[in-house]
Amino acid sequence: MTNGSKSHSRNRRSITLAATAALALAAPLAAGSPALADANFPSPNGNTNTASIVDYADLVAQLEQLENTSRFGLDAFTLAEAGTAVNTSETGRDLYVATVGSGPEAVWLQGRIHGNEPYGTESLLAVLKELGTNGSPEWKLLRESYTFHVIPMYNPDGSELNIRHTVLQDGTAKRIDLNRDWGVGKFEAVESEAYYEYWTMVDPAFAIDVHHQGLKTERGDGDEVTLSLGVSLAPGGPTLPGVQGGAYDVLTRQMQVHVYDELSKYGYINIDRYDVGRGIEIDIKGGVVSAMMLGLNHDGLNPEGHSNPAIFFETSGNTSDGSLGQKARGKSIKQNVLALQELLVGMATGEVQQEDPARWDEIPHAPVTGYQTDTGVIPASF
């Protein structure tokens, strides 16, 4: 596994090549509003056998296997090999990245920043397999359009403990939510220092973060929600319209509208917009992808103020509350892979950039009552 850090152009390339390959993972149904998912999406209820979930040793082995079997130059490496000043977890585990593709723009994909949210790891390993071995026009387009920087397990210590956080090894045993640790006066955990520096080396064009949420039902009819679409600086909220002249406020909506439309073709996926409850949308500045959009300059490592748009996906169920549901595992991972694939192809072909951002409001959601910020909730009438 060798050093995969590269320098990339930040100028977005106009791509007109249409993706013609059919999705290999599932057959689409007729387009339209999302089909009700409760009839054919296996229940996420019930105890989860965490022994079947990819752990850190599995991750290392699978990355090595993907590198060895790749047809298209997949490179798996540690941050020590990439040359970051800090490059291990709090307990000293190596932090891994995989790169693939030769395109002029970098794309950042990350999963399992919360250790009890495992399917980000498995979904990104599945995407890496396709990028590394699939010769179809669709995956070829992606490799030629972008260079992917994929972090399947951002939080290996928390993953091994099956907890959301990492635990500081400075004698305090303080638990740190790594997705609240990129911010002024933060960076308490070494994982944050390590991956932040790598982000400044990559300067991605955009980023996608794969998460889990608890069990969720649709407002009104009570149907199970299987996937929520989110932006951690709320579109139309107190922060995002003022970033990059409002450009990210538009593009992040377009990205999620595209995912909503494309995944509506699959009969077992039921989608809504992410919120933290009671119509309160998230608008935090300390989250990793929030800091990316804000162009955070920590420790002088981002003096040029690079920033990039970013979104996240939330698959329902997690391990710590016993709601993952082994029967739902395959379809939970598949919906993540489909969401990633549809979004990436849409970005590469320019379809995403043609979406109507106002249709963000058509994605099912509770009436917005407020915004959860780093310092508390502010009303929607701010």
Automatic annotation (TrEMBL):
Residues 52-382 form the Peptidase M14 domain. GO terms for molecular function: metallocarboxypeptidase activity; zinc ion binding. GO terms for cellular component: extracellular space. Keywords: Carboxypeptidase, Glycoprotein, Hydrolase, Protease, Secreted, Signal, Virulence. One of its GO terms (biological process) is proteolysis. Its cofactor is Zn(2+). The keyword Hydrolase applies. SUPFAM superfamilies: Zn-dependent exopeptidases (SSF53187). Pfam families: Peptidase_M14. It is found in: Secreted. Belongs to the peptidase M14 family. This is Zinc carboxypeptidase.
